[in-house]
Amino acid sequence: MTLIIELFLYLLSLYLIFGVAFGVYFIIYGASKIDPILAETRKRVRILLIPGIIAVWPVFFYHLFRNKPTRIATLGLKRTHLIIWSLLIFIVSSFIYKSLEQTDFTKKNNLIEKFVKNESYIENDLIAISKDSNTLFIKLKKPIKSASSLVYTCDVQGNKILLLGQVDRNKAYNFKIEDDIQGVLIFDSIKTKTITKLLFP
Amino acid sequence: MSISYQMVQWNQQKKNYDRFILGLIVFYLLSFSVITLVFNSETSLETLVIRSFGSLSIILLHIILSIGPLSRISPKFNPLLYNRRHFGVIMFIMALIHGGFSIFQFHALGDTNPIYSIFTSNMDYNSVTNFPFQVLGFLALIILFLMASTSHDFFLVNLSSAVWKRLHMLVYLAYALVVLHVFLGSFQQETSYFTIGFIVFGFITLSGLHIFAGFKELKTDKPLNLDSKKWIYVCKLSEIEEDRAKICRIGKEHIAIFKHDGKLSAVHNVCKHQGGPLGEGKIIDGCITCPWHGYQYIPQNGQSPPPFTEKLATYQLKTEHEKIYINPASFPEGTEVLPCKF
Predict the structure, then answer these.
(1) B188 and B315 share a domain?
(2) Separation of first and last alpha carbons in chain B
(3) In sequence order, what are the beta bridge partners of A188?
(4) How far apart are the C-alpha atoms of B260 and B239, rounded to whole Å?
(5) Assigned domain for B5 exists
(6) What residues of chain B lie within 8 A of the CB of A44, using their CB?
(7) Do A191 and A111 share a structural domain?
(8) How close A179 gets to chain B, by Cα (Å)?
(9) CA B299 to CA B278: how far, in whole Å?
(10) Are residues B57 and B108 in the same domain?
């Protein structure tokens, strides 16, 4: 997959580089060759056209050597709309259905149930935390209103020790832990401030 | 209509149209910001911008895509078509702000190329539920860029209206990508049932409108029976209102028959500008006026008034006992045909 992505981005970059080069040629020489009306038009209009020239440069590159197409009547487009929308309904609905089908709605609830039954349990109005010998469970009671909420283990003074991961708006998380921990601290790394801190008794 | 290109082709109506859209946008952004800050005062500026502009561009895209079918269902909505291109460009700018801030916030602060990061930060391409939704948004943004950047009349002239129109039908692909981007994003990020409900409702409404308009046209769009005759019966004279037209179909061609000042004239129904249905327009100042963008043609020869150069094919008509007949053989574009008097 990585190879396909890299190939796609490489071709996209090449397309844009050629487009920019052709855009420069268009501003300086090509504009009035492509369309004589542009010779009578203000120069700044050409600048406005540059993004479009970059977007569809192969068509105009081709026009330089061949005559531009004569205008032809637009036929059957209304029926094309109908066909496209019939296809869209089928494809988008199938995608939505498949994504719902593959979603495990029960997963998070099981997780919550598991840690509520655990004995080592602390909570405040934002989060509830429990632990067993190798797992730390965190349940968010409400979404954390922060762009970056990192979970650290902390010592009894509340100093950060080990980064466990990140929480956001999902309700329940579990993190692997190797040693017994004294407490948990959730830290906003963008605002560089502690969101909440809980210490086990 | 213009014989040289301008930066933006504005007239008073278009300016009013654009002012109205911009007013709505400012109102929406302010309302969104106030409501968000009241209920979630911790929201960062970047998040506020990403969400407000993202939701705004989706709403605008739905409005833009509903204008076409609405105007095909009822001509009352034709004024909305008049400046739809400006509407589209504004929507792209809103989507670009959303995309730009998202790329900056989520992908530009590391040591990986931000565009590469969009495609590789989530590699769950085999899953439908966890499919990387940001990739879908990025691809939609590329298509919207292609359309916004080629929206100037220069491209319409040089790509030809048929190619330009087909190119701009890529908006449907962009729309499908946007729907899936929002749907999966809502699921993967926070399971926002409001957002999911909104996008599903929007999709059902929009596809319903398009399907309804399509089937309505299929019913009325039946070809006339040729039977190898020179003159084909079209309709009764009383079926056409003054300064309006009746659209008939011969084979694959649509023809608009206009009634004006006690005369009848027939021209090819497709406007040379963007393929608008001329027969849904009316006669203004003695000229057939396209309902989409106001391009004009002289009824008896199908030519745009000087200095413009657009020309339509014309047709011969006759009346007998209050009935209109047409000769299906078209004349070359711009040919003068004596109007049929009644």
Answers:
(1) no
(2) 32
(3) A149, A193
(4) 13
(5) no
(6) 7
(7) yes
(8) 30
(9) 11
(10) yes
Asked if residue B276 belongs to a domain, the reply is yes
What SS3 class is residue B131?
Answer: coil
Question: CB-CB: which of B155, B214, B217 is closest to A85?
Answer: B214
CA gyration radius, chain B: 24
**Owning domain of residue A15:** 2-65
B128 and B42 in a common domain = yes
Which alpha helices (H) appear in chain B, and where do they start and end?
12-39, 45-73, 78-81, 84-107, 114-120, 133-149, 153-159, 161-168, 171-189, 193-220
pLDDT at B100: 94
Considering the domain architecture, whether residues B33 and B150 belong to the same structural domain is answered as yes
Which residue of A lies nearest to B205 if distances are taken between CA atoms? A89
**What is the band of A110 on the pLDDT scale with cuts at 50, 70, 90?**
very low
Average pLDDT over residues B52-65: 95
Do A114 and A30 lie in one domain? The reply is no
Domain that holds residue B187: 12-220
Is the model's pTM score more than 0.80? Answer: no
Burial B260-293 (b: 16+ CB within 10 A, else e): beeebbbbbbbbbbbbbbbbbbbbeeebbbbbbb
Backbone phi and psi for residue A197, each to the nearest 5 degrees, phi listed first: -145, 135
pLDDT of res. A119: 58
Considering the domain boundaries, does residue B238 fall inside one?
yes
In Å, how far is B322's CA from the nearest CA of chain A? 31
Same domain as A56, residue A30: yes
Q: CA A111, CA B222: separation in Å to the nearest integer?
A: 62
Q: Which of A45, A75, A78 to mutate to test the interface with B (most CBs of B within 10 A)?
A: A78
Q: Is the pLDDT of residue B101 over 50?
A: yes
Q: Is B172 on the interface with A (CB under 8 A)?
A: yes
- Whole-angstrom CA distances from B305 to B208, B266, B294 are 40, 17, 13
User: Is B4 part of a structural domain of the chain?
Assistant: no
**Do residue B205 and residue B242 come from a single domain?**
no
Q: Which amino acid is at B23?
A: G
Name the residue among A123, A150, A153 with its Cα closest to residue A139: A123
- The rounded distance, in Å, linking the Cα atoms of B221 and B202 is 28
Q: How many structural domains does chain A have?
A: 3
B97: left (phi over 0), alpha (psi -120 to 50) or beta: alpha
